[in-house]
Specification:
407 residues, Creatine Amidinohydrolase, Chain A, domain 1, Creatine Amidinohydrolase, 6-stranded mixed β-sheet, globular
Amino acid sequence: MRVRHNHALKQGKRPTVSTDTTLAADRRIWRDELPFDEALLCHRIATLQADIAARGLTGLLLFDPENMFWLTGYQTIGYFTFQAMLLPREGLPVLVTRVVNRDLALALPTIGTAVAIFDTDDPITVLADALPTGGRIGLETTSRYLSVHDHRQLVASAAVAFEDCNGLIEMRRRTKGPEAIERMRRAATAVEAGMAAALAAVKPGARDNDVAAALYHGSIAAGSEYIGHPPMVVSGPRSALCFALWRRRTIARGDVVLIEGAGCVDRYHAMMARTAVVGPPTDEQKASAEALTALLETAVATIRPGETAGEIDRRCREGLEKLGLAKYFKSRTAYGIGIGFPPNWAEGHIYAIRPDDETVLEENMTFHVIPTMFREDFGMAISDSVRVSATGCEVLTRYPRDLVVVD
């Protein structure tokens, strides 16, 4: 296959493509599969190709579904099987993927061709055969979708040199454009609806499954797609266990119910967490909730362009330290958010607000500010998704932060 006219990409137009007719699909059939404007994606391709050329590379080989999506709009729930995307220095990306994903990929005008992996094939052999001969190709060696075994086999079998290019796309994903922010606002609206439904389902005699079902139904009915990992719904003493999920437990008076959910629109996420207590809260529970709300409000008041992540984290922890509660806050103050595929909904590997982090915040970075407290017999979380605005912080998820008391 030959892909021509890369200059058209730089003008935001779709290049002319010559492709093997045995692999081609009618690109008009599923035009709605393209989540963003074609010119935007073509611009991203051209920008990344300029980065590739500046490094003297022949191309860039991608394994993370988040990066494939950002570049081309391609998405599939078949991310659990091997696939790779080659962005050549000139022309459209080439996707090497399981045969069942082929038509979905070729429905997109941003993918030049798809090399099919049949279930009887060795995927790495198919990929190696699809790569050009000679030159150097950048690799995402930190990708969870490239195993040590596959990396070794690829290096041994491909007729091309490789070099690490981790973070090349992530550098471009750090700040969000208007199209991404619009999706995240819609995702925030969806998770707000889910949270309202979930909190309404909290009552004595209900199961934690009922709360989780309400959270899912509310957010999906409000427009959410599937999210990057399960929401967190836990009750009673199990609320003290971070990353535990619902397990058919019956909610009783005195229980704390911790709920963390997300909405997703075109793979862009927004998250939030709220906490409920069935019956009058104890003094410890009230103090914990007030401290978490204060931490969240400090973060919102402090986040702005030019601040360092570490300094924001330090200011947020000060209040907990004065109250003697810092030992119960065991994680970073916030993590980056945006595109997510299972097993993760976050972009915390790109940037985060955490101790001693020298990252300087920029306008249109987006975060999930996640104050949590996991004590001996209960846990709480009160969190919101935010955007760094030109002068401060825009809160994307707008829902009352009070500890919800269920009579």
